[in-house]
Amino acid sequence: MSLYKPETVICNGETFKVYLSEKQIQDRVVEIAKQLNRDYADKKPIFIGVLNGAFVFLSDLLRNVTIPSEVDFLKLSSYGDEKVSSGQVTDLKDIDANIEERHILLVEDIVDTGLSMKYMVNKLQRKNPASIATVTLLHKPEATHHDVPLDYVGFEIPSLFVLGYGLDYAQEGRNLAQIYILDGEQ
Ligand code: IMP
Is residue 30 part of a domain? Predict the structure, then answer.
């Protein structure tokens, strides 16, 4: 299989360079999956992926999960087409599964300010699950000012705009197999 992983990429007129390689990402995804296999061995968790960004991470994660589990999705919009958060969260799609008394793993691509994750945890909590844990591939600790528990974190990164592996810039770049930052930064 030949994945799309150029050294640099131009997206919406701006040049991005590799920040996390395919191997770094895949190795970490396997580690998180192994941890989940242990922690949720008898819990039959429901993975809830946050669209659109988390679909790539969730699909790789899930294929390394060996315990019984289910999957559902919800969709939020908070960034519009900009590189900074609008500070507002809009519901675009709710989950279909009944999560009452179930163990939930909420899967995000990235936690920036923490607003979206906090909003979703509160929203899902009202549906009376047995537990909710959060899983995010990337976390920008310096940017996070909403108080939200992060249980499984792939990589902590600086407060820089990143692209690829599901993450977009004005809807482009999700198909990149690696994670990129603006050229000239870091
Ligand atoms: P938060 O609510 O500020 O934590 O932002 C979370 C959402 O913003 C993520 O699910 C992403 O969709 C988007 N986002 C945050 N940082 C980036 C980035 O660096 N690149 C692309 N999308 C991002």
Answer: yes
Q: Which domain holds residue 25?
A: 17-76+90-182
Query: Among this protein's residues, is 112 annotated catalytic?
Result: yes
How many domains in the chain? 1
pLDDT for the residue numbered 80:
60
Band the pLDDT of 11: cuts 50, 70, 90.
very high
**Burial of 63: CB neighbours in 10 Å, binned 0-12, 13-18, 19+:** exposed
> Domain for residue 6, yes or no?
no
Question: Are the beta carbons of 106 and 61 closer than 8 angstroms?
Answer: no
pTM here is 0.95
- Among the listed residues 64, 63, 116, the one whose alpha carbon sits nearest the alpha carbon of residue 88: 116
Q: What is the CATH number of the domain that holds 95?
A: 3.40.50.2020
Report whether pLDDT(181) > 90.
yes
Name the residue of 110, 116, 136 to mutate for ligand 1: max ligand atoms within 8 A of Cβ.
110
* Residue 9 within a domain: no
